[in-house]
Write a structure and sequence with these properties.
Elements: E1 10-11, E2 20-27, H1 31-42, E3 47-50, H2 58-61, E4 67-68, H3 74-78, H4 85-95, H5 102-110, H6 112-121, E5 130-131, E6 144-145, H7 154-157, E7 164-165, H8 174-188, E8 191-193, E9 197-203, E10 209-216, E11 219-231, H9 240-246, E12 254-255, H10 264-271, E13 276-277, E14 282-286, H11 290-295, E15 297-299, H12 313-323, E16 329-333, H13 334-339, E17 352-354, H14 357-364, H15 370-382, E18 404-407, E19 425-429, E20 432-433, E21 440-442, E22 448-454, H16 471-489
Parallel strand pairs: 1-9, 2-3, 2-11, 3-8, 5-6, 11-22, 12-19
Antiparallel strand pairs: 4-7, 6-7, 9-10, 10-11, 13-20, 14-19, 15-16, 16-18, 17-18, 21-22
Keywords: FAD, Flavoprotein, Oxidoreductase
InterPro entries: FAD-dep_OxRdtase_2_FAD-bd (IPR003953), FAD-oxidoreductase_2 (IPR050315), FAD/NAD-bd_sf (IPR036188), Succ_DH/fumarate_Rdtase_cat_sf (IPR027477)
GO molecular function: steroid dehydrogenase activity, acting on the CH-CH group of donors
């Protein structure tokens, strides 16, 4: 094992003259960093953004682009939904739990409509139409989608309303989102230094963070931040050492990342005495197609159903990978398969097909009679429009009849599984630095570290042990904005 690079803080007294100076220095130019940079610059601060890659965007630009927003946005109203912050809070408290951060979550829900309008003001386009089916992301350009709000048990906890807001484009919308945020940051007057990797925090004699030491190719570059440093450099899914220490459930699976989520921001801050929180919390995505499993079923390696398949797909992914024996199989019959639009199949084709369930059991290596028993029970109740075991919505229930097809999540979407870990699952980390609602990083005594802020996946945000699409980009930008404003308001003179 190669030795870890040093992330120990550097004393201000040992720097001499800095190469660059600013009021607020933002480390990382994904969505959270962009939000922090924009707000700091809009507040009148001189802002510099460091980006380790050759261009901004990060993992945010490669994401689906969902923003989890609600409480009565104009898109929701146009689609006929009368949502409230209280309903949004009740749903997210359950879906992001157990142990969601209720202080941050309450602020996020109460400020959600204003946050949506902030995106609109930055030029992010939202079509006022609904994609009315479960899914990871729609193949249409609809601006609103369900993310499990109408599935049991969540439809008994809060009045269901779709809250997945999406920039107007089919499938992956993160590129459009970041294009608008990058332009807004430039228009606000912030400067960007690319190919620049922050390695160490600079600290003055009073323990205040005063800047960073960075590396640009083989050159060392120093940055003075008079007001504060905002760490928005992502999580740590690309750092297997940190995964082994904190979130080993993701080891051996694909990584949902642009490859730069190496935990550097978290490591720099904890070397200074920053506290971390929820470091074992993760998102797991099993590449089982919601369009298939809603019309059929998802079974584990013993041929058993284990959840209502119309929930948010990240929830059936967590249940599968963390609690059920694999491998996992999506089972559907010919009638159900024929209902699915080709674009909604995500380039996936059946791995096995058979006239009888006994043949499928043999092909899949399932215990004899296991799948037959599962389907017999499912069909008996589906004929009555019921699912007493897991309570799938009746609109997806009907008896399954041969011939049958099996989709293997390990095949991935659009063939991606053939190039990754091959497990059919991937994920990213949710834990990070302990921050106040204004992005101030706390130390292990619970006190803010002067001059240090964090947002996005570098920080521990609203999540407990659950996840819903759009809560990364939503949380990161919402609290990134607060961190940027806070850092700008505390700029100090030389």
């Amino acid at each position: 094992m190669s030795p870890r690079s040093s992330v120990e803080p550097v004393a201000l007294s040992g720097i001499g003259e800095f190469d660059h100076e600013c009021d607020v220095l933002v480390v990382g130019f994904g969505a959270a960093g962009a939000a922090a940079a924009y707000e700091a610059a809009a507040a009148g601060a001189d802002v510099l953004v460091l980006e380790r890659s050759s261009g901004p965007g990060g993992t945010s630009a490669q994401s689906g682009g969902e923003l989890y927003l609600g409480g009565g946005t104009r898109v929701q109203k146009a689609c006929g939904f009368d949502d409230t912050p209280d309903d949004m809070f009740a749903f997210l408290k359950a879906a992001l739990g157990p142990h969601a951060n209720e202080e941050k979550l309450r602020l996020y829900c109460d400020g959600s409509v204003d946050h949506f309008e902030w995106f609109r003001a930055r030029g992010v386009p939202f079509k006022e139409s609904l994609f009315d089916a479960p899914g990871w992301m729609p193949y249409t350009d609809d601006g609103l989608m369900w993310l499990g709000e109408n599935a049991w048990p969540y439809n008994t906890i809060a009045r269901p309303a779709p809250r997945g807001h999406r920039p107007e484009t089919p499938m992956f919308a993160g590129g459009i989102l970041m294009e608008k945020l990058i332009a807004a940051v430039a228009e606000a007057g912030a400067a960007t230094h690319q190919d620049t990797y922050a390695t160490n925090l600079v600290v003055d004699g009073d323990g205040r963070v005063a800047g960073v030491v960075a590396r640009r190719f083989s050159e060392t570059v120093t940055y003075r931040a008079r007001g504060g440093v905002v760490l928005a450099s992502g999580g740590f899914v690309d750092n297997d050492e940190m995964l082994a220490d904190h979130a080993p459930v993701l080891l051996g699976h694909d990584k949902v990342s642009d490859g730069t989520s190496d935990g550097s921001g978290i490591r720099m801050a904890t070397a200074l005495g920053a506290a971390a929180r929820r470091m074992a919390a993760v998102e797991i995505a099993l590449t089982a197609n919601p369009a298939v499993v809603c019309r059929g079923m998802l079974v584990d390696g013993l041929g058993r159903r284990f959840i209502n398949e119309d929930v948010y797909p990240g929830l059936f992914s967590h249940q599968a990978v963390q609690h059920q024996p694999g491998p996992y199989w999506a089972i559907i019959d010919e009638a159900g398969y024929d209902e699915i639009a080709e674009a909604d199949m995500w380039g996936v084709h059946p791995k096995y097909a058979a006239e009888t369930l006994a043949e499928l059991e043999e092909s899949l290596g399932l215990p004899s009679g296991s799948l037959e028993a599962t389907v017999e029970t499912y069909n008996r109740f589906a004929e009555k429009g019921e699912d007493p075991c897991f309570r799938k919505d009746p609109k997806w229930l009907r008896p399954l009849k041969g011939p049958f097809a099996v989709i293997d999540p390990a095949d991935g979407f659009f063939g991606a599984g053939r190039h990754g870990a091959g497990t059919g699952a991937g994920g990213f980390t949710l834990g990070g630095l302990d921050t106040t609602v204004d992005g101030e990083v706390r130390n292990n005594s619970g006190e803010p570290i002067p001059g240090l802020y964090a947002a996005g996946r570098t920080a521990s945000g609203i999540h407990g042990e659950g996840y819903i699409s759009g809560t990364s980009l939503g949380d990161g930008t919402f609290f990134g904005r607060r961190a940027g404003r806070s850092a700008a308001s505390r700029k100090v003179s030389e």
